[in-house]
Amino acid sequence: MAKRSLLPSSRTLGFYVYMLVALAIWGFVWVHAFSMDMTHDEAYSFRLIKTNYFIALFGTANTHWLNSFFMKIFSLLFGDGPGWLRLHSVLAFPFYAWGLYHLVRLIKSDKAKIVFVALLLFNPYVLDFFSLARGYGLALTFQVWSLVYFVRGYEQGLHYRTWMMVWLLNLLTIASNLSYFYTVMGMAGYYGWLLIRSKTAGQGLGKPAYRILFLYVLLLLGTVADLLFIKYYGKDLSYGGDSNLVHSLIGSIWEGSFYQASNEQLVEIFSWVSFAMLVLVCGYYGYGLLRTKKISLGLVLCLPFISLLALNIFFHLVLKTPYLFGRTALQGYVPGVLMICFAIGSWRLVHLDLQRITLAISALVVMAPVAHFREQANRQWCYEWSLQANSKQAIEDLYALRPVHPALGFSVGAVYTNYYHLLDSSLSPIAVELPDQEPVSSLALRVILERSDYVISAYPATIACLQQIGLRYEVLKTYQPGKNQLIRIYH
After folding, report:
1. Which of 9, 152, 170, 238 has the most other CB atoms within 10 Å of its CB?
2. What is the pLDDT of residue 161?
3. What separation in angstroms does the CA of 449 have from each of 196, 412, 417, 446, 454?
4. Do β-strands 406-408 and 432-433 pair in parallel, antiparallel, or remain unpaired?
C-alpha cells in the first residue's frame, strides 16, 4: 500500500489542519493591522494619495503602485484609519496561504512539507507585511502564484494561456513592488530559453508565443526605466547593503526573522549555512543538466534565486546600486525555502540512522519557528518600523501639554507631518524636525534643543546633548516598545 502524503488533496486531514492554522494566523494578521500605529513609510504614501500628489509617485522608491491604489480606494470607502488603509494587505494573506498549499504539493517528503509550511507561515517578519499598507505582502502573494503557474509552464511548455497567466502574475508582482523585478527576470529568462529551444528544434512558433515575449520586453523595459528614473531623478534608490552580498541578501532576512531576539553570531552562521545550501542545490541540479542535457523541475525552481543573485551583483558593480536588503531581499525567501525543501524532499535516505537524524532535525526546524512566533509576535509592533510603536499616544500626550516650541525626532516626525497633522490640524503649533540621529556634537541638534520646550525622541543623542549644553530636562514618559521619550526642557 502506497504511503499517503500529508497534504495530497483537500480531502485529507492534513488539508484541514493547514487551513485551520492559516485561518488562525490570518486572525493575528487582522488584529496586528488594526492595532499598530501608522508607520513612517505608510505615512508618506498616505500623504501622496490624500493630497492627490500623484506626479510624485513616479520619483520615489516609497511608491508601491498597487499599494497606493488600494490605499486611495479604501481611504475613500472606509476612512483614514491605519487598519482600513492596510486592508488590501490583510486580504492578501489567505491567497498567499492558498498559493503555498499548491507549492507544498511539489515537495515529496512529508517532513520537508511541514518544514516548508512552518518557515513560511510562522515567520513574524513575513507576517508584518500582511499587516502594513506597503506593497510587500501583495508582492509575496503574487510571487507565490507566479511560481505556481511557472511550474505549470515548465510542465506544459509554450502553452499560451499558462504563460499569459505567468506574465500577468509577474506584472502584478512588480506593480506591488518594483524590486521584485530581480526574481521575475528568472521566469522571463526561462520563457526566452523555451522560445530559443523551440526555434532551434525547427518547431513553428505562432503569434501568441511572440506576443508573450513582446509583453515581457515591455514589462522589463518599463520596470527598468522606472527604477532608473527613481535612482537618477528622484535620488531615492539608496536603501540596501553596500559591501556584503551574503549578509544583505540572506543575513538581513535572518535578522528580521529573528525579530527582537536577533543575535549577530547566529545571523552570521545561519546566513552562510543558508547560502551554502542554496548554492549546493543549484549546483546539484546544474550538474543534472550537464549529465542529462535536460532542465529538471528542481533547476527551474532555482532560476528566481539565480536571477536574484546575478542581478544584484550586476547592478551593484555596473550601476553602483546597493544590494537588496531586508524587506526588498525578502523576495528571495519563498523561492529559497522552496528550492531547499524540494531538493531535500527528493533525496532518498535509505539508512535507518540517517532517517532518524533527518526526523529529529525536521522536528526541531518545525518547532523552532512555531515557538519563536508565539514568543516574538507583537500585535502593536513591527520589526522594520519599530520606532513608530505608540507614536499616536506620544503625539497626543505632547499636544495635551500645549507646547509652544515642540520638536519631533526621526522616530515620529514623519508620521506627525504626513499623517496625524494632515488629519488633525489642532495638533499645533507645527513641530519642527529634531535631528536626533546626528552626533551629540551636532550644531543643528543643539540649536533646536535650545529653542524647544518639549521634544519626542528615541535616540540617546538627544539627552546626551541636553546634558552637554547644561539644559535642565525631565523625561515625562517613555513609550515602549518603540523607546520614544516625551521630554520637557526647562529654560
Report:
1. 170
2. 93
3. 66, 16, 19, 5, 9
4. parallel
